[in-house]
Amino acid sequence: MLLCAFMADKPSMMEITSFDKTKLKKTETREKNPLPTKETIEQERRQTSA
Question: Where is this region: Disordered (predicted)?
Answer without folding.
Answer: 25-50
